[in-house]
Write a structure and sequence with these properties.
single chain, alpha+beta, five-stranded mixed beta sheet, 13% helix, 27% strand
Amino acid sequence: MVPEGPSNCPVTFYPSGKPVTSGIWSYPTGTLALMWYFSKSGSPVTPLAFVRRPLVTSVSALVAVALVFATGIAVSSAAPVNNAANLQPGSMRAPPPPPPPTPTPPPTPATPPPTTPTPAKVRAPKPASRTHKARNVPEFPRDTRHGRRIVYDKALMTVWVMGEQNQVIGRYPVVGRFDRPVMGTYRIFSKSKVAYNPNSKVTFNHMMRFTYGPDTKSPIGLHAIPRYYDGTAMHSVKQLGLAIAAGGCVRLSEEAAAAIYKWAKVGDRVIVLPSP
């Protein structure tokens, strides 16, 4: 309520008459005003339109401040409102989902440094004898030639058949003797499917001649184990690898002689390595 008084609302009086009532707040013209009633001499009391006009602007400002203050109190004392329940679909967009985490690749195990394999210790070959076969016979012959050839190592009583690319086609144990033929390079000059020696009364298959003996001038070559006329072998296959031959020929098993005979050509080299 706005208090009365000259400091708030100035009062204007008619020149004649006295107020017969105190000021009353009312809305005579739709505007809040403080009204007094006056009288004239000899006239009944008549309400007059003399008004103490308030400062409406000040009153309105006070009312507005009061309303704001009352609203703040009401909001603070009320129960919290679930704003999420009052949201209409589409009125607010949900925040975008966070990006998926970047996968971390597993650590690469450290590669150990390459190790150089230790070469296997190569044992030196042991020569053959009349009673013991050679030991530690190498895969390749011990000559320095290359290409297509036959290598006869008298110390090891072993024959190698070598191809054009210096590859080993075959390696075979043989029976021979140390002193003949002498070390050197020879060539096959003739071949016979079946041959014989009337002095020894034996026959032998797959003869490949490459030189001659020093005394009798008989040919020396590679062939199968000789057989007497009755079909008995001069010695067994198990004895191949021993230096037990009486003549100078190089004796092989029947299968090995047949394989070399099929592969060899007239003119092929025969390399004879030294005796032990």
